[in-house]
Amino acid sequence: MGHTPSDTIAVVGAGVMGRSITALALGRGVHVVLVDVSEEVLGNARAEIAQQLRHGQFMGAFPGSPAPGTLTTTQSTSEVADAAVVIEAITEDASLKARVMADISSTVPAGVPLITNTSGIPIAELAKSVQRPAELAGVHFMNPAYLIEMVEVIRGPQTGDDAMAAILSVLERLGKKTVVVRDAPGFVTSRLLHPMINEAARVVAEGTASVEAVDRLMHGCLGHPTGPLRTADLIGLDNLADALRLLAERTGNLTFEPCELLMEKVRRGDLGRKTGRGFYDYGKVLS
Amino acid sequence: MSMDQAVTAEGIEQAITEFVSGRVKAEVPADEDLFASGLVSSMFAMELVVHLEQAFSVQILGDDLKRDNFRTVQAMTALVARLRGVEQPADA
């Protein structure tokens, strides 16, 4: 109501990344239409996003303290039609993403760029499902999106200049620094980070060092901000296993297959911070 | 209600110290700068906010929601004590 289209973005998928991206936009004064198939997930998302906005404010992530954007939650993708840009942030499952991208693409008018938030699915692959491949690009947001300053932008082989310019301008509006890379499985950050996390878990499983020791070494000796296993807990171990499998399938490198310790944690439901336990124990889940 | 009456500045400080040291698995002196020492990450910082609100039935809003109020156990104790109207030494 009364919002000019350029003030509104749409986010499809209200999981870990969809929430965090929504909080980023709201904190920067941009309105968000958040779509998910589950009313229950949307309810939980509203509560968590409110908390994330406080977190962002607490950490000084929203300079100038603009009035927060308004959040609209809906189960219908038809409500994304008026957005300046649509960010797809559903589960890291290539066929599911392809289906959702096709649905979004048939809903939004020409000229509205589509962003897929993926940690490693090639953009060229998803471009096959959309009506206007020139208007699709990838943006790999890091979690929490409202705190981490930089994003990895992936220009697919078919991505057009207009869409790139529009997407970079939206990201600038959201206060993000960007590095644009070419399309490949895992792009740059996941291609490097995910196998490192997988190896870190193997090191622990082989008894070479404890979880804490691995992270302390990577932090203290190599300057990694938290250590790979703490990062894994923040990413979510289920997502990490999905991303590693995608990387193994698409590069043919079988050492990228998620290791046994990682899979065991996923089977037990110890998915990291979001469930209260992963490689570390976080006590009660942040509510 | 009986719990409320038992809340003193020392009690608050003790409870916060227990929570923080339990989570960072280290001794935490009340005046240690938790952010500078790297004991508290940006993620744990927010858990601290939520924990204090729930444990002490307070709401931490607006200008109170800043890192300086959470930098040390002492600072958190002073914040909670103020929000609960607990008497505290003038130099706290």
Strand numbers in spatial order across the main sheet of chain A: 3-2-1-4-5-6-7-8
Total helical elements of chain A? 10
Q: Tell me the span between the first and last alpha carbons of chain A.
A: 31 Å
Cα shape of chain A: globular
Number of helices of chain B: 4
Family (chain A): Belongs to the 3-hydroxyacyl-CoA dehydrogenase family.
Site (Important for catalytic activity) (chain A): 140
Keywords (chain A): NAD, Oxidoreductase
InterPro entries (chain A): 3-OHacyl-CoA_DH, 3-OHacyl-CoA_DH_NAD-bd, 3HC_DH_C, 6-PGluconate_DH-like_C_sf, 6PGD_dom2, NAD(P)-bd_dom_sf
Describe what you observe in this structure:
The complex is a heterodimer of chains A (287) and B (92). Chain A is an alpha/beta fold and 287 residues long. Chain A folds into two domains: 5-182, Rossmann fold, CATH 3.40.50; 189-275, N-(1-d-carboxylethyl)-l-norvaline Dehydrogenase, domain 2 (Orthogonal Bundle), CATH 1.10.1040. Helix content of chain A is 43%, strand content 13%. Chain A has an eight-stranded mixed sheet, sandwiched between helices. In chain A, helix 1 (16-27) packs across helix 2 (39-58) and helix 6 packs across helix 8 (228-235). Chain A is globular, with a radius of gyration of 18 Å. The model of chain A is unreliable at 1-5 (pLDDT under 50). Chain B has one domain (2-84): ACP-like (Non-ribosomal Peptide Synthetase Peptidyl Carrier Protein, Chain A), CATH 1.10.1200. Chain B has four helices and no strands. Chain B has helices at 2-6, 9-24, 42-56, 73-84. In chain B, helix 2 packs across helix 4 (73-84). The chains are: A alpha/beta (287), B mainly alpha (92). The interface between A and B is medium-sized, with 17 and 12 residues.
